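Researcher: Next entry: DNA mismatch repair protein (Ceratodon purpureus).
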Amino acid sequence: MAPATKPGSGKNTPQRSIKSFFTSSSPAGEEKKKKEPLVIGALETPKKGAIDVGSIASTPGKRKVESSPKPPSAKKKQKLVIGVDVVPEDVVVPEDVVVPEDVVVPEDEVVPVKRRRLRKVKEESDDKGGEGGIGRRLKVYWPLDKAWYAGKVTGYNASDGTHVVVYDDGEEQDVDVASEKVEWLEEDYEEELEKRPGKRGRVEAESPAAKVTVVEEETGGRKRRARRQIQCVVESDDDDDDDDTEDEDFKAEKDASEEQESEVDDAVEEEEDEDDDEVDEPEVASDSDGKASRRKPKKATLSAVKKPSGRGSKKVSKVVSKGSSLGKITISSGRLEIGKGVSNDIASGEQSALAGDAAERFGGRDAEKFKFLGRDRKDAAGRKPTDPAYNPCTLHLPADFVKGLSGGQRQWWMFKAKHMDKVLLFKMGKFYEMFEMDAHIGAKELDLQYMKGEQPHCGFPEKNFSDNAQKLALKGYRVLVVEQTETPDQLEKRRKETGSKDKVVMREVCAVITRGTMIDGDMNHMSGERMVMLSLVEQISETDSSLIGLCVVDASTGCFQLCQFEDDAARVRLSAVLTELRPVELIIPRGTLSSATSRVLRDCTRHPLVNELSPSDMWDPEQIFKEVSNVYSGLESSQENGVAEAELLPPVLRHVKGLGAKGKMAFTAFGACAQYLRQVLLDRTLLAVRRIELLPGFNDILDDPECKALAEQAKVAVDAGLHRNEPHMVLDGAALENLEVLENNDGGTNGTLLATLDHCVTPFGRRLLREWLARPLLLKESIKQRQMAVTDLKGVALDAVSRFKKEMARVPDLERALARLHASSGANGRNAAKVVMYEDVGKKQVLQFTAALRGCRSMLQAASHFDPYLLKLTSSRLKDLLTFGKGMPDMKSVIEHFETAFDWPEAENSGRILPREGVDSDFDAASAVISEVEGKLDAYLKEQRAHFGEHREIVYLTVGKESYQMEVPERFLAKIPKDFEVRSSRKGFRRYWSPEIKSLLQELAAGVEQRESALKDILMHLVRDFCKHNSTWLSAVKTIAEVDALISISAASLYTEGPSCTPTFSGGEQQAPWFYAKDLRHPTAGAALTGGSSFVPNNVNLGGEQHAPFMLLTGPNMGGKSTLLRQVCLAVILAQVGADVPAEELRLAPVDQVFVRMGARDNIMAGQSTFLVELQETATMLRSATKNSLVALDELGRGTATSDGQAIAHAVLWELTHAIGCRGIFSTHYHRLATEHAADSTVALYHMGCKVASNKGGLEEVTFLYKLCPGACPKSYGVNVARLAGMPESILQRASARSAELELTFEERNCETVKTLEDQVACKLLKELGHSLEKAERDSSKLDALERLKPLWAEAKELVAASA
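Model: Predicted structure:
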């Protein structure tokens, strides 16, 4: 196929050379520079050559080559990589390499292809030149296609000496037959061409590798034509490229002739909406000497041609995976069979079977070549899967298999055999490669394309690392990053110096990335949501209660949180933690957790990745102390500051360790977490932050008197700022889930209380608001202070609020940015200096540093906006927060220091930091040397001008790389000293170096080298200085987070539909708890949830001196009973968070716990029915509730027979009202409960109002009023719901008749039980006396009252018996 027509022209231009697309900016005589890879830690980016902008059309993710005039021929040939952003100065491309106009080349593609020299057919060109060739047929050779194209000469352009060639496919082009490779055709050749099958006009090249098949396929309902993609690298005389795509061949079978041939890949044209960052890449082979070569493609089948191949390209259609191609081996998880993650399937070989083209290409090969992955599989220690100690994460490689591997393959398998549970990203030059079973995962999960060849292989460029690693981690894979720590040049040097016979560069494991270990800033895109790991250890008691130790780690912020508590048989406290945090990874000891704990881990998490540690390998407390102390003692900060051994550990950790058995479980959980972090190479990085706190809400360790005494003995002081020790309301897991406080049933936030209140502008403010909702305040004074702060932010400080939000809206997630900076200052993992990187990592680090600096300055400015309003604030808490030196640290001087240290905008633009004077002593010393030498050179120039007669023509010039050449007019030749050395000249002038200049230049070079050396380390020095103030920055972040959360709460009232109020709290120990709401509405149910109509408000009265503390709620199905329960509970939570409540008025006594039992859930896997789960939650409620608690029970007892369910409901209600005496609402369809409690002063009967009418068929039609009304509802109108559900009319009629019969029977029985009003009164008196007796018996102070009540009780019994 001929090249496409040039845009804007009527006919095609001549076939062009690659040189026409690029220009070289280096002077003719300038020495060529060597292109070096970019190494982490080096701040200076190698200079790049110029590129002719006019020759490249900018398109997203691609570069399209346009025509431009040919530059002059070059003398020296260098390797040219098509697709890079710039071309090195020294790159010159031979004229005889051509590229068609329609070539589209991916930006990051590196395709080594051998250059072929074109032969010039001068004799034939001379004979058929000019107009003599018109009408003749010829074929033109396209070297990048390695194919000939036939056509006919139809005209001649005398102006430029080109012939107009019309190819046989109808396309036209101007061709210079004198310079291009052409062959004139005879008539017999034309006849032979006509008989050839395939596309007319295409003449195949001699090489079999040049064969290209053009096909069409149906994709997405439309045809797509396969497009030839030209990929080339011009041959270089100097192999200076450090790209390690030059590694030893990964393909065992290799033909020597293949190394001499180039390859033309057929790629299906990409979809219009394809990701621009994805590029098509070829498979790369390499010689043992490190030179890259292209593999000759095998004969392509139709299916193979349809699929594009290349590194990073996207698939046309996804492969559907089924079953398993390997033996199914399941990782042991003890008693915990939950969300182990797909990485465990990788370790066991339980991967999806290949399908389609992949199965055809690789299925037989895998089964034949990797028999040791099937039934004969063993771990690294030689144990089989049937062995209890078998480790599926390792693999034994047979000796004969290893012996047959090439050096590169052996290196990959050595890494893989130690990490079978992980997906390897294997760095080769500028690409991360995926081989064998990992390649199938890359194709399936990342939509990468397999490379050509028998071996499964795909990959992606370095710039796509963060995106692809994050995708794999979020899908549950463990990703092992193997980085290149040596360049080919360094390999060659090592071989010469040590005599090593290594043929591949050195590589090391530099990172393990999972859902809980994503610390890279480019991977944390989750809008501020925490993705935490949780380690758990447990000690079981004889009563099935459990002593639990937890350690929660947020790797993105470097924060560790510890706690230890005793939990009941239902693991209520553990479920609350799990429901709030939703950990994405669990670290647990294998096989030691109780069934109850395992059940809660399963039910209260969302498929976390489970990491099991062998109990025999886990560190004991002494070893934990030793290992962690070694980490801290090895930190540079500890060495510089001379920290004593006893103070190496952070305060909270020292405190917990000093408590002995009282803190043992928490300390052990921390040790398990540290042990796992060491396995994923993050222990030093995260522990260095020294941010270890107690988990908010679990301060048993601090409150226990014995613990306090032990802490005083150990002389351990705990910084109060490291934890929040304020009393709070308890919300267990059931309450958080049923009320949808943090998450809805789908795991999102739509319709939740968090979404209603969340108007934060910072991610760290949003995380704090989430904590507040999970643990509302309890003390009235604390609630009052927060309410006053919210009022101030809506009133006197409203103007400052708008400026605060505008300032902080631009700030990144500083809490995470500070942790990343701290991590990078240690130069660990992928940040290590030895890791070879080709992207501009230095500039990326500079941008991260300046972003953190700007964020800290923004925090300072945001807090300063409140200065004019401090005296007007009524909240002392808010005033303290915004006062510098109190809640807000005084960090102005520190920020000013970094502002004067270097020019921030200049550093962001250049990617390197030039420190100002006084910042870095080494840089200042080097700069002083340079200034001194330059001064001497200026003085020497003045001396020479005086020597030659004060002529201003004598100056210094820089020629090429030689500076300070002293230019002297030739008329002064007689005065030139003999020791002056001529370096260059021009007409009328000569340029010299004198011995003095040479000596000074040596001093100057030494100074420049010293300064460059200082510049390489200046960024790390500044970052370390910045991290020394980490406690200051974190304190400021916490303050700004609290202010942001308070502003968010204040803003929520502005978005509330209808009136809202600030709740009033009262009551004390001697007063009965109470709750009063006037016109209360649901906080989260807006117009969208009520079909566009307004929400019906209700008045609610619970407790106090004049109202019953408990409400028995009846009403029709779908009448709004559950909604009323939820809105009362949510109103209490809102009130104690400090927010306004959607009501005309709300008065209450603080609630210590909220219990909610609603909905139907079962646990079939544990053999637990819906009814059992319901009663377990109710039992927890009865054990934990106090008189200050709030209980919401929705239809308790419906999971069993009516008589049993009603009996249980009656007993529970009696316990809550008479034994516990708490506030609550009990909704039910057991109408007999209402009858039984009609005379109970502790229970108030209410129902949800409705209107009932009959339709034409005599069926009841119910209109829901959603209004809370006094008294009991006579029935539930379930037949009405059946009608709404669309049941047949006959069924409805029969159900209605049967319902009437059952109701009549119930009424008759009720009449027999209670005959007269007097009987009811007598029963009521009897009950009241009985209750009073029970209370008096429990209170020893009321013995006198007990004596008076006993005769009354006997008399009441006689009266009731007589009436019966």
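Model: Note for the record: The radius of gyration is 40 Å.
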